[in-house]
Every structure is written in C-alpha cells, then in structure tokens.
C-alpha cells in the first residue's frame, strides 16, 4: 500500500480593506506550497481559489503587479512587518505564518492597493527633471565625468516603490516631509551637466516646507531600499548644497 505524502501548505494572514474609508480586517488563507514561490505567486494562488482557511468562499484579494522584476514598484507592501517588493520576496525566506498588509504611509484604495501619487507630487515640487526644449535638435548633450556618471547611475535606480517612506519615522500624518527618496533625486538632477543649470532652483524648492529639514537621519531608508541606493550620502550632499545656497541667498553672492 502506497504511503500518503502530507502536502505542505503555507498560511498567509492578509490585512484587507473593502474601500478607502472602510475598517481594515484580517483574513487567513492556506495554500499549497511550491518551491521558489514569491509573494505574488502566493497571492495568485488565492485568487484562483478564493477560499479562506475557515473554508468560506470570499472575494479574491486585490493587489497590483506589473513588471515582476523589481522595476515598477507597484507591488510594494508590508511583508512580515517589513516594507518590501512582493515580486522579489521569496516564501522560503520568510517565517510562517506570513503576514501581509498594505503600506499605511499611503492612502489604501482596497486591500493591498495603495495610492503613491504623493511621491510624484513631491518630485514635481523639487523639479526633479531636466528641462530641455524638445522642439528642435540641439545636438548631443555634454559628456559626464566618469566618476559622476557611475554615481548618477546608482541614484537613477530609484523606481519610486515607496518602501523608504514606509520605513522612515518622519513620514507620517503629523508633518509634510516628502520622504527620503527625494534626496537622491535632487542630487541626481543636480550632477547632470544640463540639470545643474537649475541646481539652485531645485535646492531652494527642497528647502521649503516638507523638504530636507524634515529628515532626522534615522537611516531606516537605507536598510530597506531594494536597490541599495546611497540615500544617506545623498542626504549629506543635498544638505551641503542647501547650506551653500543659504549663504548665497544671504550675501547675494555666486562665489560659493
């Protein structure tokens, strides 16, 4: 008589929310384990068979995904109390049961779906772009110093996933701090040969309410950044630029 092999299962405790103004609640699901599963595949298994651990049929869990390779940032969520990307977080690396919740720094739309619009509003506030007139060909752009290029490449890896805001103790409903991700973006645009022409304007915008003064340098952002972006060195660089800009504004001089 053949031996019956016990099938391995995974329990997931998911914080759910029906609407933006609804009260959150927890629902537990049990799914079959497969090797090399990530959180996205676990959520897809629930979607295929939306029955909770009590055997009750329920509404499938709502979440967002796109690239599935840690590029788009929309699958950011709290996984075992740590903000992470669901696409690159493997089930085998997590303690059981797995707790999944939305990142509460942002407005929750439904279940694990959040609204990250505030991040893009922050980028608008600090003018995090390179202004050029695209109506005609102005020829090739200026070449960058190799050391600057390597540094800029690291800064450009930011994909506005939002996990640094979730980890930062200064991003909350008691202040309007834009968050750690803005520092590398200001620095990135300021080291660009064309972008540096608007350097002062960019730094001054970041010196306003919600800007660099809101950072307490807790360095939680570096711990969770999935791309290992040098956020703390960017904080130091932007703070130095702000100090210089303050002297320039006070003395009315460009000799700094």
UniProtKB/TrEMBL annotation:
One of its GO terms (molecular function) is 3 iron, 4 sulfur cluster binding. InterPro entries: 2Fe-2S_ferredoxin-like_sf, 4Fe4S_Fe-S-bd, 4Fe4S_Fe_S_CS, Beta-grasp_dom_sf, Helical_ferredxn, SDH/FRD_Iron-Sulfur, Succ_DH/fum_Rdtase_Fe-S, Succ_DH/fum_Rdtase_N. Keywords: 2Fe-2S, 3Fe-4S, 4Fe-4S, Iron, Iron-sulfur, Metal-binding, Oxidoreductase, Tricarboxylic acid cycle. PROSITE patterns: 4FE4S_FER_1 (PS00198), 4FE4S_FER_2 (PS51379). Gene3D superfamilies: 3.10.20.30, Alpha-helical ferredoxin (1.10.1060.10). This is succinate dehydrogenase. Belongs to the succinate dehydrogenase/fumarate reductase iron-sulfur protein family.
